[in-house]
Design brief:
By secondary structure, the chain is of the alpha/beta class. Helices cover about 40% and strands about 20% of the residues. It is elongated and about 60 Å long.
């Protein structure tokens, strides 16, 4: 079942869209906190976003750019703005289509179906995005975002951090982490694990994430 995130602050329009897409058996979620749309996006992990332009706090162009830092997921802009400049900006900043208000639900449904078919007909794409507090890990592109700051990770650092995030409420023992770092050519020994964890810590500190990875003596590591 495809999941669609509805970013629309007009409750009437959002309800109509949600009802129609539900009849086509799409799973939908409506953003309620327009000050932090990215968190809604990450937690829901949609296959497509319907994005209004005129929104509280930041406009749809801003949030489209934020999402594009993490994924190439399809984004359809829906807006009452009808100038050519707005349409061009929507596409050049990462949008896949643009629908003017008022619009027919038949047109919206047809566009949603067409874009989903093009985007996912040859592969079942899933998001590789994890979040812990104000830290966002992009597994596919091996980088971490915190506000406007960004760092790149090595593949092993990414594996360590992703496992810690997925198990953020518990201690991850060293043996389990070393097993996660296994590849076809080599086995990461205990000392190499320590080096990778320390290097990960230093990188996180450069974007203001001090003390996120805590050592639990005799056991392993966990996130704070």
């Amino acid at each position: 079942m495809y999941k669609i995130l509805i970013v629309e602050d007009d409750h009437t329009i959002a309800s109509i869209i949600e009802e129609r897409l539900g009849k086509w058996e799409y799973k939908t979620s409506r953003v309620s906190d327009f000050s932090d749309i990215l968190s809604s996006y990450i937690s829901f992990e949609p296959h497509l976003v319907l994005m209004d332009i005129n929104l509280p706090y930041y406009d749809g162009f801003y949030w489209c750019a934020k999402i594009r830092q993490l994924s190439h997921i399809p984004i359809i802009f829906i807006s009452s703005r009808d100038t050519e400049g707005d349409k061009i900006r929507a596409i050049t900043q990462g949008g896949d289509d643009y629908i003017e208000k008022p619009f027919s639900m038949d047109l919206l449904t047809a566009k949603v179906q067409a874009i989903l078919r093009r985007a996912y007909s040859y592969s079942d794409q899933t998001l590789n995005i994890l979040q812990h507090r104000d830290m966002v890990l992009d597994i596919e592109h091996l980088h971490v975002l915190c506000g406007e700051k960004e760092i790149e990770l090595t593949r092993n650092e990414c594996k360590i951090l992703s496992m810690l995030i997925r198990n953020h409420d518990k201690v991850v023992n060293r043996a389990r982490l070393m097993k996660a770092l296994w590849d076809d050519e080599s086995f990461v020994d205990d000392n190499t694990l320590t080096v990778n964890v320390n290097r990960l810590r230093r990188k996180l500190e450069t974007i203001g994430l001090e003390g996120y990875v805590k050592t639990i003596k005799g056991e392993g590591y966990r996130l704070l």
